[in-house]
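Moderator note: this is an archived Q&A kept for reference. The question asked for a predicted structure of one protein chain; the sequence and the answer are reproduced below.
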Amino acid sequence: MNAKELRQAAELLKQSDENRRRQFKRMGTEVVQGVEGLVADHIIATVREDDDETYTADWGREAMGRSELVFNRHFTLALYPTPTIETDVPGQSIGFLDTTVKTRGDFRTLCRLLGVKLRDSTSIPKDTK
């Protein structure tokens, strides 16, 4: 199942949960959102349809709005063929950490964990932090 199919399944699951609650309400009983609805809401909030598409540096530049970004004063996220974290801490040698980013979803997760904000059209929704 790819990301698009997962989101579609979550939409169906959410509709099913909403229909069940409407049926109970018609019978005079209020029912809270079921586990199915909670799971569906989480999937819809965190999974993007293109999460499993292959990451490219061009897409990363578009998502980030630049080809590299300094964060935490001494670290740089650079978008070579794969994202690389470069360190430049005074008194220490410069280090490089190659990431294992293969998909757009991997890149979004890396940026979220590093506190790097992406452009709205490509970022993970705020309510998942």
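Archived answer notes: Residues 124-129 have pLDDT under 50 and may be disordered.
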